[in-house]
Design goal:
Elements (H helix, E strand, L loop, with lengths): L5 H12 L12 E2 L9 E2 L7 E4 L2 E5 L7 E5 L6 E9 L9 E6 L4 E6 L12 E2 L15 H4 L7 E8 L2 E6 L2 E7 L10 E4 L6 E11 L2
Antiparallel strand pairs: 1-14, 2-5, 3-4, 4-14, 5-13, 6-10, 6-14, 7-8, 7-13, 8-9, 10-11, 11-12
Length: 210
Amino acid sequence: MKPLPSVTLALLSLFLALPIFGADPMPELKPIFNGKDLTGWKDPVGNKFWRVENGILVGENDAALKGNYLLTDKDYGDFVIEFDVRWKSGPLPRGLDTGIDMRKPRIQLQLGVSGSLLVDMTGSFYTGGKPAYPEAGQAKEFKKLMKPEGEWNTFRIHAKGNTFMCWINGTKASEYTDARFAGAATIGLQIHPGVKMKVEYRNIRLAELN
């Protein structure tokens, strides 16, 4: 058997390195944060917790440590969202506790420490039920995929039908299937109550799936 040409090998390596989205082609992601202001987003309490600085979306709670969500204006059902995010842990044992909420009823991709478990559950899916973090949806190897604290990490969430998947810096970290979370809803960026925290986002892009 003749060896494969170098060009063929290069293309094969590139294909294997790409994220896999089942039968869907690679979606075209479009910005849903313009880097200037909160156009396309809404804060139920009047943008007291969210601001834009140098092209970065900053979420930070107040002295009363109240919770808050920044929500998209639009509801989404099946979609892919990708974003860069960074944070510092903050005071332990709680550290940072935030996440990305989606669908109806709400399911969340956790970022940081779980308030109920006091364990970092970054990249895992939180259902609010029992168990709150089903083992099937946990990102057990997330620490190997994350960059050092304070650096930007790129997350991608794929929500299609009953299945939710998460990639961290290009590597698949978790997958969870649950028929309960079927309704289209706003996407929400969380500031958890009772926790001193600051989180930063940039390059938030999304594609709706057919």
